[in-house]
Each structure stands twice: as structure tokens, then as C-alpha cells.
TrEMBL record:
Composition skew (Pro residues), residue ranges: 1282-1291
Entry-linked InterPro entries: Endo/exonu/phosph_ase_sf, IP5, IPPc, SAC_dom
Origin superkingdom: Eukaryota
Phylogenetic placement of the source organism: Eukaryota, Fungi, Dikarya, Ascomycota, Pezizomycotina
Organism: Apiospora rasikravindrae
Biased composition (Polar residues): 1020-1032, 1126-1135, 1161-1170, 1222-1255
SAC domain residues: 189-557
Keyword GTP-binding (UniProt): no
Keywords: Hydrolase
Family stated for the protein in its record: In the central section; belongs to the inositol 1,4,5-trisphosphate 5-phosphatase family. Belongs to the synaptojanin family.
Name listed for the protein in its UniProt record: phosphoinositide 5-phosphatase
Length: 1322
């Protein structure tokens, strides 16, 4: 055993409270179901066999082609799940599955052919971060099978005996397992999860550091878990996805039940600090403080010591750990400091070996080949933590470690984060390295000499600052807060991180991290003029020693070396002997136990080949969620709120802190109204001296917060209005952002988060960057960003880069960016200048020529060019430049530098729901800048939650009735079960087979479509169409090509009738039309075919079939029906399309005479009908499956617009059409159409040999419209075609000839055209 016991061994074993436990129940008949039951709700699982499993076991033999194929991936296990209020009736058939309570659910996992539910059956409380936030260590985990009763009565021997159980060993194998003991598929996984290295909390999000989670939230959102540290992510993800599909009140109930558990691996422990040893005094006597260390081991490159080294191609490194020191005081102060460790980020390996110190290091990839992964690693670190300072502890004398250091330096030197841009100094970099040979430094003076590391890092430590939050005393402001807890406001945020490494990142690393944690906490105390006693530092060191032991056991198999010094500050003989024993133990474990442990870790993380997560299906909640999204308008409304935004560069001055700020914070334009939100940004809140820049002391910001609050509430008192409270503030050295809101709107605001982004690590550049705060006001997301960009008249390109760095790099929780908000407002000193000489600028200022000044404003020019703040807007500037003034006067700079006046202080906005009301400056003269303010009216969305709940309840009840009370807890046979869940696809590429409830071609109420883009033809003289001679079934083997090239026809619609014969394909006609319109050659259009005599059972119903008084009827035999086209029977719509829109065109309808010299259409009919079959009866087969032979004999004929002499719509080109066109042109026909009629008279007739053909308002009865060209559709506009050279013969004069060529698909003067309706089957 280790000389120093772990923290857990010292603490009294306390289990989770009873309100955090649930019961596990099972029902055996008629179907096996397992229920997790809390005090109010039940989560019920029921396994459902998949189609493949049914085929394999012989219960489904009707689909021969669906039998499993060799080499196919593992199938996805499916389970039905239901979350419902618990009741006696619901649980009547259930019995207890285990007599003990369970404390959480780790998730579901498939092992072999079985699906297991993993639950926590024993846990011990090990930490209290602050009152109401506890952490439990998992002591035992059990697995229960959803689809088999084979493992129901399996109990591990002495599972709760901490001394005898091998499962309690945090690392080693169960070498003492009894002979003959049965092995179960989950046995190794159970031992891994029960070894004491896993922790969870049901009170807060344990996977995120304090800075990345809501500090004052009573509940936490499971969706915000950081997957990098969530070790049960693979198992819990199906339940998290199921939770996301629940309604809001159901999600809240599921979270409140504490059923779902997030597990981290690493270390967590709290030291209770008595008030006598507490570094901060408190007004509450007798209450202790809490000092906590939480270490989160990443699961992205998880593994054992010699199986997991270096980096992978995704930028993840081995043994990456985020360690956080947290201190809570009863006075309401909350401190946090984070640092990380991780393997050297290059590709390298090391063999285990049995000789200590002789394990050979092998670098497996070239330096250039490693650079992309290296860059990705540090870019991720910079995005998560800010600037990075690497502390490399590798030896400078051992060859293997020297080579690693050289590769490390190569990567840093070639990383963009470490290279400053042009015109920037070295301080502007975001990545720097300090090499500290630990063994050489401590060789002579012992480990005490390691404290010298402070001299190398304290400069960065001051710049990185720390996280600080404090409770606010809002008792006098009528603020509603939870009982027993004041509202907490973030004061300061950590802006960078130390990344420490040695070879294993265990022993040396832990000692140096202890010193860095101590350095940060001392900085925090110095800012408050406090100090800590030696008793406190002993407790601090003990916690970090325990942390090192725990992390070392996970990675190497034993406790950490050098822990004796970490605990006491001295290295004793007993400690040296203990280190030697640990080294020998590590050799044994690393050589003989690690490989099997690695396989178990991979199984837990879902990385084994063929491993798939379990699929959960809820037939009722999924339907309700979809229907609610469609009916969102019923329970949504809007509300207008007022926002006041102000920005002020203080130039480090505090003289005006007691001045009247009313002209700035409540300008006259507001009148007696009060804005709901007041956002105030400061720049240079501290002087830009070398000492102050690196000082993150928040006291100056707090003083200004009090001044703002005093001004706002003083004015509110004078007008009898509401008081304001500070919602949240943030600071980045000299930049600060404070958000105040009215007390009455606090209840409407949620998910308030803050973030900072530096554009440099330290020095002068360290003062530049941004502070951002986001929130949700009702259901609208707002984001405020205050920024201080690079200074200098000519540095506008650097300012543009600063903007880009902030815009792309600033991230909130869940990786939410600035753009992921409905409304964004930027405010601050952007430092853009006016590009004029001093004399010219002063002359324009004297004459108040703001327009000429603005024309030369750098920000205006950069925004117009799209180089900065794209898509942002700024109101018209009506105030004089705000920089630079002589202090206390309205006189611009008269110093030797003679700064050119400029609008450096700006406020920009982006969003469709925001309108600017005012934009001006205020006459406060104690700085060299003038403060600027803007007021906005913002429209926010309001959700009526009671109404939404009422609608969802109705949908739920209706859906439950529709599915016949189907649920996991009710009786179902297997066919009904799979009807709800859905079947598997029987062939790759096919959709799942349909059922009574699931139809793949009607997903979400819409027909399924597969858009196919025709390949480009081999030459410009041909077009590519689908092969008509291929089999209609696309899955039948055939030698026919899918696509063929055909000569380009005169009509660009000529190939449409045969473009597809497969029901699985949908051709994008609009794309083909537009392509054809721009590439085909001009041509004449064919005349219309007389289809008025077609019987009603073919094509569209003939509107003229019934006798009309005063007009004759035709008795000719009908021509053949059109192939692959099925017209609609919408007679009303057909008539409406033929009526010209005389209101829009402004023309009076005129009677049009029939065209002269018209050839009798009966002759045309005879030509076509002589080559076609007789018309069939009403088709039973879908039109798109009609035999392609029929299309060869059918020709469409057109009509034309006699007023405008414009072709209206083409038809399919053929030899008969061309002959007929020539014949009509030679007969001096006045105009030609392509199947569409535009008439200004209700009816007309054409005389033929056999009688009179009637043309009603609906045009030709057999006409078919193109997709999108029906009534109410907007038609795409195509370029007009030039007319062909005229044919011999006179052309009749017409007034409409002067008009340009008609757009075949456009809406000409708003007149609707009849004819083509649709090519899709009805």
C-alpha cells in the first residue's frame, strides 16, 4: 500500500441521499421490460428484435434477400423507450429486479447479441464544491440484460466489500478470481467502472469547469456535457438523444428524476477548511470553507501507459487531464483556476520493457507530417482556454527526451499561434514555451528547488488571471432568488492556461502543477489583501498529492512518485523506498496487464470494430415533437423591448466616477421610459502601464458597476420607475462589459453566459481583445460584445485581423459562436480613424462637415469593402468625432502628437428583429474620449408555455389513441412493435420496408424525392437522357446504360416524356429547363393539336364534352392519349388559367378572328392516329411506368397568342411536328404556339371539315402544365429567344409584333397561361 492514504480513505463514507435514488423493476410477461422508477416518473425499456435478427432466428422467412451477408457491419440494436408518470396501474405487473436502490444510469451497451442497461448500485460522496453541489464516486456498477433473463440472478462475490473485492482495485486485473467462477460478457467492463476512478454528480455539470457552466443555475442541462471528459458518452448518447425529443416539461421531469448520469474519470475530493484556517474572513461565524480539486481525464485518446502515447491525427493527446482548483467561502466568494497536462503532442511510441529507464522512445512520423495534428491540438486548446503557455519538464540529457523536445520546438515554431503577424511584437503570440529540466534543476538542492519555476511563469500567470464569482446582495432590490441562496455574478474570468508535461505527465508534472495552483491562489489573495496560513497550504498540498496518486493509478498502475515531497515539502527515506516499490509494480502491470485493460476501455468508449450505439424509439413523443414544431405559431407571440447600449474609453481615469452619468445612461431621447436592458462597455478601465496591464484586479470594474447602478436607480426613483440589478459582468484586463436589467424582466432571462477573447498574450497587446455576454430573453438570443482593437492610425488591417480573431475565436458554452444569436451588438473602441491630414480634418470639424468626414472614415470604408464587420449595420452618425480631446475640455488634441479627430468609439448591430432609435455621444469630459450611446427597439419571441402544454397534451392523447395505447409498458406482439419502430432495409441503398404506420415515401407528410442531375453530354450537339430501353426495375441486372446521348432536338421539352421510367427517380425539370434555355438554338414552334374531342376518360376531363347551345360538336375519332402524363381533373383551375388577367394588363378584351388559311386539323389528326394504337381505357398503372413504345407515336401541338404573336409553350419535337410546322408556315399562318393558349375572349371556335372545334376558357382539354406553372405558382424567368429567319411568304401585320419575344416560362404581365400542368403522376 502507499505510504499516504488517499483522501477517500480519510473521509467518512457517505452515500447519496435517498432523493437521488431510484428503483429498478422488471416485467416478464407478455414481453420483457425493465423500468427505472423515481418518486414521480418511470423510464421503461423494451427490447425489439430487428428484421435481421428475426430472419436469423427463423421467425421471418418471407424476405429471402434480407438474410445477413458476409462481411456486413454489426446491426444496430433497437429498443422502445417511454418516459411517463409513475402510477400503480402502470407498474402493476412489475416486480423488483434488485432489492437495492440505484443511483443513476450510465446508459445502454450491446455486448455480443445482448443489450445491457448499466446502472450505479453503490456510490460514496467525496466532494462538496459548495452547498448544494456534491460529487459522488462510483463504488459499484451492475448490468441488466434487456432481451434475456439469463443474467438476472448473477451477483458478484462481496460486491460491497471494499477490502476483498478486486473490483475496488483502481487499475489491476482480477488476478485472484476463483477457479470455476463463471465469466459474463460484461464482467471486465463492470470491474473497470467499479474501480473507484469514476465520479458523477446529479447536482451540476461535472464535465465542464466552473467558468464554462452557469454559475447560479439550480439545475444543469445534460445537453451541455463536454464529450471530451464524458466517459459514458457512448452508452448515454441514445438516452440524451431521446431526452432531446421530449417536450420541455418532460425534459425537466427527467432531469429532476436524476436518472441520467454523467461520469468522468480522474479525481475529485474536497478538503473542509475550518474558519480558523480559512484565508478569507466571513460574517457568518462557524461556517467552514471548501477547497476542492477536480481532475478530468480526457477519453478521446484514452489508454494505458505504453499503449497510449503522443498524439493522434485529430489532435488528441494521451493522458490529457484538466485539473481545477476551486475554493468556496461562506462570504459568497467562488474562486477557480484551471491547468492542463498531456503527452508530448508528436507521434511517438515507447515499448514497455522490463528494465527501468531502458524503454526505447520511437518517433513514428516526420516533423512535417506531424504538424497538422500539432496545430489542431493547440488550436483546440486556444479556443477552449485562450492563450497557452507550455511548461516542458523533459530532460536535456536523456537522448529520447531530448529528441522529443526538439520535435516539440519544431512544432511550436511552425504553429501559427506562436508566430506574430507583421508589425506585431512577440508579445502578441498566443503560444509560448518554457523548458525546465526538472531533474537537473532539483539535482543539487532537492525538490525544494522546483519552486524556482515561478520565475519563468509568473508573468503569464498574472496575465491569465483566474475565475472569480461573488454573491450579490439584492435584498433591497426586490429580486426573486431561490431560498437560502443569493444571486451570483461573475467578476473575472481566466484568460489562458498552463500546459505542463513530462514523459508520462504524472510525477514531475503533478509537483509543478501544485506550485502553479498555489501561485494562482496567492495572486487571488493578494488582490484582496488577504493571506493564507500554513495549515491551509498543507491541506492544499495534500489534495494535490492525492490527485497525483489517483491519476497515476489510472495511467501507470501505481500511485505517483515524489508524492512524499508534494504532501510535506520534504523527501524522506520512506518516501524514496515507496517510490522504488511503485516503479517495480509499474513494470509488472505495464508488461502483463495493460493490453486486456486497453480492450475494456475501447469497449466502454464504443471503439471496437462493428460496435454501434443502441437505437431508442418513442412512438408517441417523437410524433408530438414534430407536430408541435408545425403549430409553433399558435403558441408564439412577440414583444418589443428597449435596449440602451453605451461605450466609454476611460483612459484609466477614475475622477468622473462620482459625476452625474445621466446624460450618457439616460439620455433625453428616452423620456420617461426605462430600457429593459442596459449594456455598458468600458475600455482602458485601468491605465496602460506595464504594471497595470497584467493586473486583473477587478476592483476598478466593481467601482464603476456601483456608479452605473447608482445612476440608473437614482433616475428610476425620480420618475417612480423600476430598479435595475447587475445581471453579469466580465473583464479582460482593461476592457469590461456590464449588463444591467430591470428587476421585473429577470424572470424572462435565462442561460446567461460570458466569454473573453484575447488578441495577444501579454505586453501592450494583452490589453486588446473582447468581452462578450450572451443571454436568452424569453426565446430570443441576444449577444453583446465590447472590444478594444489595435491602435495606430495606419493599423486598420491589424484591426480587421483583431475583429476576425474575436469573431471566429470567441466561444460560449456548447461551442456557440457570436453568429449563433438572433441579435448581436458590438460596442467599444474600435480605433478606426479618419483618413485625412490633421489640417483637413480640423477644417471639416470646424465646419461640422460630418458627411465629408464620414466618407473618409476607415471603419466605413472597411465595412463597404467587406473586410470588417460584414452584415453589420451602423446608424447615421450625427455627432462630432469622439477622439481625441484635451482632458476636461471640448478642444481636440493640442499636444505634440496632434491626434487626428476620429470616431473611434462605435456601436454596431446585426439582426432582423432590431431597430435603432438613437445614436449619439454624451458631454462627459473627464476622459480624452467621449462616451457614445445607442438605443434600440428589439422584437423578442414569447412562448405561451401553458398553451403549448395544452396543445402538446392534446396531441399526446390523440396519438396514444391512434397507436392503440401502444407503449413499452403495454402488450404488443412483435409485428406491431416493428410497425412502430420501422423495419430494416433489405438491400443497401433501399429505404426501410414500409408498414401500416411507417411509409418511407411519405416522410413527414411529404413525398420522398431523389433528385438526379443528368451527366454532361460528351459534346454540345447532344443532350443526356435516361435510357428508355433499360428495365423499369433499376435493381434488375442489365447491360443497358443508365444514360444515353441523343441529338439535341428543336424543342427543349422534347425528351421530357421519356426522361424517366423509374418510380425511384425524380428529375429536376427546372434545372434542365434553365440549362436548355441558355444553350439551345432558336426555332419555330409547332401548332396546337386539337384534343377537344378526346373522351373524358383519357387525359383531362373535356370541358366541352357537354353540349353548349349555339355551337356544334365534333364526332371525329380521338387521337391516342399522351404517354407518361396524367392530367388533373381540376376543371375549375383549368378554366381559371385561361381567363386573361385584364386588370393587371390594363387591356380591354377584344374578339380575335380565327387564323386565315388554317389547314383542317382533321388531316393532322389522321396523320397521327394512323401511326398509333387505339386509346386505352382509364389507366390503372402509374403514368411514369407507361410503356415507352407509346411515346413514339404521340405528338403534341400547340397554340399561340394572336395578340402578341408570341410562342407560349413548346411540345415534343418529332418529324411530324416539323412537317406540320413547315406546312402551316407556308400557308401563312399568323402565329404559332407550343401548346398554350392566351385569349382575351371567353370562347372561340375553329371550323374544320367535320364541324366546329370549341376552345373553352380552359384552353385545350388535354393540355398538361409543367411543374410549378400551375395557378398560384411563380414561374422561373428564362432568357428570351431570338426568332429564326422568316420563311418565304407574307406574314400578317400585327400590333403585338413590336413586343419582345415572350418568356416561355415567365409571367407575362401577370397573365396566367393554360396548357401544361404537371409531369408528375397524380
Amino acid at each position: 500500500m502507499d505510504q499516504y492514504p488517499r483522501a477517500a480513505a480519510r473521509d467518512t463514507v457517505v452515500g447519496p441521499s435517498s432523493d437521488k435514488s431510484s428503483q429498478l423493476l422488471i416485467r416478464d410477461y407478455p414481453h420483457r421490460a425493465i423500468a427505472i422508477v423515481s418518486s414521480s416518473h418511470a423510464l421503461i425499456f423494451r427490447y425489439s428484435p430487428t428484421t435481421s435478427e428475426a430472419i436469423a432466428n427463423g421467425s421471418l422467412v418471407s424476405v429471402s434477400s434480407a438474410r445477413p451477408r458476409a462481411g456486413s457491419e454489426g446491426t444496430i440494436s433497437k429498443c422502445m423507450v417511454e418516459f411517463t408518470p409513475a402510477s400503480k396501474k402502470l407498474l402493476n405487473d412489475f416486480r423488483p429486479l434488485t432489492p437495492r436502490p440505484i443511483y443513476g444510469t450510465l446508459g445502454l451497451i450491446t455486448i455480443g447479441q445482448d443489450v445491457f442497461l448499466s446502472v450505479v448500485t453503490q456510490a460514496n460522496r467525496v466532494a462538496s464544491v459548495r452547498p448544494g453541489e456534491t460529487v459522488e464516486r462510483i463504488a459499484n456498477v451492475d448490468f441488466f440484460c434487456l432481451n434475456s433473463a439469463e443474467y438476472d440472478n448473477v451477483f458478484s462475490l462481496n460486491p460491497y466489500d471494499n477490502e476483498l473485492s478486486d473490483s475496488n482495485s483502481p487499475y489491476g486485473q482480477d488476478l485472484g478470481r476463483r477457479e470455476g467462477e463463471l465469466e459474463y460478457p460484461y464482467q471486465e467492463l463492470q470491474k473497470l467502472l467499479s474501480n473507484g476512478s469514476f465520479y458523477y454528480s446529479t447536482d451540476f455539470d461535472l464535465t465542464n469547469r466552473l467558468q464554462d457552466r452557469p454559475v447560479d443555475s439550480a439545475t444543469f442541462d445534460i445537453d451541455n456535457f463536454d464529450d471530451s471528459f464524458l466517459w459514458n458518452s457512448f452508452m448515454i448518447s441514445p438516452l440524451v438523444q431521446f431526452r432531446s425529443r421530449l417536450l420541455a416539461h418532460e425534459r425537466e421531469a427527467l432531469d429532476a428524476s436524476r436518472i441520467l448520469t454523467s461520469a468522468i474519470r480522474g479525481f475529485c475530493s474536497t478538503m473542509t477548511i475550518p474558519q480558523s484556517a480559512a484565508p478569507l474572513s466571513t460574517a457568518k461565524p462557524g461556517l467552514p470553507s471548501f477547497l476542492t480539486v477536480i481532475s478530468r481525464l480526457s477519453c478521446k485518446r484514452a489508454g494505458t501507459r505504453f499503449n497510449s502515447r503522443g498524439i493522434d491525427d485529430d489532435g488528441h493527446v494521451a493522458n490529457f487531464v484538466e485539473s481545477e482548483t476551486i475554493y468556496w467561502s461562506p462570504s459568497g466568494t467562488l474562486f477557480s483556476y484551471v491547468q492542463v497536462r498531456g503527452s508530448v503532442p508528436v507521434f511517438w511510441e515507447q515499448s514497455a520493457g522490463l528494465i527501468p529507464g531502458q524503454q526505447k522512445i520511437s518517433i513514428t512520423r516526420s516533423a512535417e507530417g506531424s504538424q497538422p495534428a500539432f496545430n489542431k491540438h493547440f488550436e483546440d486548446l486556444e479556443q477552449s482556454y485562450g492563450a497557452v503557455h507550455v511548461v516542458n519538464l523533459l530532460s536535456e540529457s536523456k537522448p529520447g527526451e531530448v529528441e522529443l523536445t526538439q520535435r516539440y520546438h519544431f512544432g511550436v515554431n511552425h504553429c501559427s499561434l506562436s508566430r506574430p503577424d507583421e508589425k506585431q511584437n512577440r508579445d502578441h503570440t498566443l503560444l509560448r514555451v518554457t523548458d525546465y529540466d526538472f531533474h537537473a534543476e532539483t539535482k543539487t538542492m532537492g525538490y525544494e528547488a522546483a519552486k524556482g519555476i515561478r520565475n519563468y511563469i509568473e508573468h503569464s500567470a498574472d496575465g491569465f488571471a483566474y475565475y472569480l464569482a461573488e454573491e450579490m446582495n439584492d435584498a433591497g432590490d426586490a429580486v426573486q432568488v431561490p431560498a437560502g441562496r443569493n444571486r451570483v455574478v461573475v467578476v473575472l474570468q481566466q484568460e489562458g492556461v498552463f500546459r505542463t508535461n513530462c514523459l508520462d505527465c504524472l510525477d514531475r508534472t503533478n509537483l509543478i502543477q501544485t506550485l502553479i495552483s498555489q501561485l494562482a491562489f496567492q495572486s487571488f489573495l493578494n488582490h484582496r489583501t488577504e493571506y493564507a496560513s500554513s495549515d491551509f497550504w498543507v491541506r492544499h498540498s495534500t489534495l494535490w498529492a492525492d490527485n497525483g496518486d489517483a491519476l497515476s493509478r489510472i495511467y501507470a498502475g501505481t500511485g505517483a512518485l515524489k508524492s512524499s515531497f508534494t504532501r510535506t515539502g520534504k523527501m524522506s527515506l520512506a518516501g524514496a523506498i515507496a517510490d522504488a516499490r511503485k516503479s517495480a509494480t509499474r513494470l509488472y502491470i505495464n508488461n502483463f496487464a495493460d493490453k486486456s485493460r486497453q480492450n475494456t476501455i475501447d469497449m466502454l468508449l464504443g471503439r471496437l470494430v462493428g460496435q454501434s450505439p443502441v437505437h431508442l424509439f418513442d412512438p408517441i413523443s417523437d410524433y408530438v415533437s414534430g407536430e408541435l414544431s408545425k403549430r409553433a405559431a399558435e403558441f408564439s407571440s412577440t414583444e418589443n423591448i428597449t435596449i440602451l447600449v453605451g461605450t466609454f474609453n476611460l483612459n484609466g481615469k477614475t475622477e468622473g466616477i462620482s459625476d452625474d452619468l445621466t446624460p450618457w445612461l439616460h439620455p433625453d431621447v428616452l423620456g420617461s421610459s426605462q430600457p429593459e436592458i442596459v449594456a455598458v462597455g468600458f475600455q482602458e478601465i485601468v491605465e496602460l502601464s506595464a504594471q497595470q496591464i497584467m493586473n486583473s484586479d477587478p476592483t476598478r470594474k466593481q467601482a464603476w458597476e456601483r456608479a452605473i447602478k447608482k445612476t440608473l436607480n437614482g433616475h428610476a426613483q425620480r420618475i417612480g420607475g423600476e430598479k435595475y440589478v447587475l445581471l453579469r459582468s466580465g473583464q479582460l484586463v482593461g476592457a469590461a462589459l456590464c449588463i444591467f436589467v430591470k428587476v421585473s424582466v429577470l424572470s424572462k432571462i435565462k442561460n446567461v453566459e460570458g466569454s473573453v477573447k484575447k488578441t495577444g498574450m501579454s505586453g501592450i497587446a494583452g490589453n486588446k481583445g473582447a468581452v462578450a455576454i450572451r443571454m436568452e430573453y424569453a426565446n430570443t438570443q441576444l449577444c453583446f460584445v465590447t472590444a478594444h482593437l489595435a491602435a495606430g492610425f495606419a493599423n486598420y488591417e491589424e484591426r480587421n485581423r483583431d475583429y476576425a480573431t474575436i469573431h471566429h475565436g470567441l466561444r460560449f458554452q456548447r461551442n456557440r459562436s457570436i453568429d449563433d444569436h438572433d441579435t448581436v451588438i458590438w460596442l467599444g473602441d474600435f480605433n478606426y480613424r479618419i483618413g485625412l491630414s490633421h489640417e483637413r480634418a480640423m477644417e471639416l470639424v470646424k465646419h461640422q462637415d460630418l458627411e465629408r468626414l464620414y466618407e473618409n472614415d476607415q471603419l466605413n470604408l472597411q465595412m463597404v469593402a467587406g473586410l470588417a464587420f460584414p452584415f453589420y449595420s451602423e446608424a447615421k452618425i450625427t455627432f462630432m468625432p469622439t477622439y481625441k480631446f484635451d482632458i476636461g475640455t471640448d478642444r481636440y488634441d493640442t499636444s505634440e502628437k496632434a491626434r487626428i479627430p476620429a470616431w473611434t468609439d462605435r456601436i454596431l448591430r446585426k439582426g432582423t428583429n432590431i431597430r435603432q432609435l438613437a445614436y449619439s455621444s454624451a458631454p462627459l469630459r473627464f476622459s480624452d474620449h467621449r462616451p457614445v450611446y445607442a438605443t434600440y427597439q428589439c422584437t423578442v419571441n414569447i412562448i405561451d408555455e401553458p398553451l403549448k402544454e395544452h396543445i402538446s397534451r392534446g396531441l399526446y392523447d390523440r396519438r396514444k389513441a391512434e397507436v392503440g395505447q401502444t407503449g413499452t409498458n403495454l402488450d404488443l406482439d412483435d409485428s406491431e412493435d416493428e410497425d412502430l419502430i420501422g423495419y430494416d432495409a433489405i438491400e443497401p441503398g433501399l429505404p426501410p420496408a414500409s408498414s401500416d404506420r411507417q411509409r418511407w415515401w411519405l416522410e413527414n407528410g411529404k413525398m420522398a424525392q431523389s433528385s438526379i442531375q443528368a451527366p454532361r453530354p460528351t459534346d454540345g450537339a447532344s443532350s443526356t437522357v435516361l435510357n428508355k430501353t433499360r428495365p423499369s426495375n433499376p435493381f434488375v441486372p442489365s447491360d443497358e446504360n443508365e444514360w444515353v446521348n441523343v441529338p439535341r432536338a428543336n424543342s427543349r421539352l422534347g425528351s421530357f416524356s421519356s426522361i424517366s421510367s423509374s418510380p425511384y427517380e425524380h428529375i429536376n425539370h427546372s434545372t434542365l429547363l434553365s440549362t436548355s434555355a441558355s444553350s439551345s438554338t432558336p426555332r419555330k414552334l409547332p401548332p396546337a393539336h386539337d384534343t377537344s374531342g378526346l373522351p373524358a376518360k383519357v387525359g383531362r376531363i373535356n370541358l366541352m364534352d357537354e353540349p353548349i347551345p349555339g355551337q356544334g360538336q365534333t364526332h371525329e375519332p380521338p387521337p391516342p392519349p399522351p404517354p407518361r402524363r396524367q392530367a388533373t381533373n381540376n376543371t375549375t383551375g383549368t378554366q381559371a388559367r385561361a381567363i386573361p388577367n385584364s386588370r393587371e394588363s390594363g387591356e380591354t378584351p377584344k374578339p380575335n378572328p380565327p387564323p386565315p388559311h388554317s389547314q383542317p386539323l382533321s388531316a393532322v389528326t389522321a396523320q397521327v392516329s394512323g401511326k398509333s394504337k387505339a386509346p386505352p381505357p382509364i389507366a390503372k398503372k402509374p403514368v411514369h411506368l407507361t410503356s415507352p413504345i407509346m411515346s413514339a407515336g404521340f405528338q403534341d401541338f400547340g397554340q399561340f397568342d394572336e395578340d402578341n404573336n408570341k410562342p407560349v409553350m413548346p411540345r415534343r419535337a418529332s418529324t411530324n411536328i416539323q412537317k406540320l410546322t413547315s406546312r402551316l408556315e407556308q400557308s401563312n399562318s399568323p402565329s404559332l404556339t407550343g401548346g398554350m393558349q392566351r385569349s382575351n375572349q371567353p370562347q372561340r371556335s375553329m371550323t374544320t371539315k367535320t364541324g366546329t372545334t370549341n376552345y373553352g376558357q380552359g384552353g385545350l382539354s388535354g393540355g398538361v402544365n409543367l411543374p410549378g406553372l400551375g395557378l398560384g405558382h411563380r414561374k422561373p424567368v428564362l432568357p428570351a429567344r431570338p426568332s429564326q429567319p422568316p420563311q418565304p411568304g407574307p406574314m400578317p401585320a400585327s400590333k403585338s409584333v413590336k413586343n419582345s419575344a415572350v418568356d416561355l416560362l415567365g409571367d407575362d404581365n401577370g397573365t396566367e397561361m393554360s396548357g401544361w400542368e404537371t409531369l408528375r403522376p397524380s
